[in-house]
Write a structure and sequence with these properties.
The protein has 171 residues and is of the alpha+beta class. Helix content is 15%, strand content 32%. The protein has two domains: 29 residues; 136 residues.
Length: 171
């Protein structure tokens, strides 16, 4: 082989590597506000929540959940987080996903879950987002049992009554 052919092959290999690295995180970036919806949250007995997918969720997508309050710029550090990875198959739009026992030995009906959180019966919220731990790049949805539980929805892109749902307090 000549030097010119080796350079062309080297450039081609480097391009393939770069494109592969770029596509590794592409699945998460397809998610947007409203990609999922919260259906319920329970702060008694088997603490947990239920979501519904509103679009197909690509394999190996990672969604983070926190019950920390949002101050308009960042989350507080006084609460807990859960990371959900949906697994190696597409989860179709309309799928109901149950997160159970999130305060102890958390489990989920699809994929895997890491972390735990304890929900308060009053003034608590759960935010779903993609990005780094406590560093959201896109907010997907939120749910609360009292609007004060959010902290605020400023700078989240979430809309109260649409992508952010307020349920009545549990009795």
């Amino acid at each position: 082989m000549q030097v010119k052919e080796l350079k062309i092959i080297s450039v081609f290999i480097i391009l393939i590597i770069i494109l592969s690295v770029i596509n590794l995180n592409k699945t998460d970036t397809l998610l947007k506000s409203g990609s999922i919806s919260f259906i319920s949250m329970e702060s008694k007995k088997n603490e947990g929540f239920v979501i519904r997918t509103n679009m197909d969720i690509s394999p190996n997508s990672k969604i983070r959940f926190t019950d920390s309050e949002w101050n308009g710029n960042r989350f507080g550090f006084d609460e807990n987080d859960i990371t959900w990875i949906n697994g190696d198959k597409i989860i179709p739009a309309g799928t109901i996903i149950n997160f159970i026992n999130i305060n102890y030995k958390a489990s989920v009906s699809y994929g895997t879950i890491r972390g735990s959180m304890r929900l308060s019966k009053e003034n608590d919220a759960i935010f779903a987002y993609i990005g780094g731990k406590r560093m959201p790049t896109i907010f997907l949805a939120a749910i609360t049992n009292n609007e004060l539980g959010y902290g605020t929805l400023i700078n989240t892109g979430l809309i109260n009554g649409k992508t952010a749902i307020t349920f009545q307090k549990e009795k």
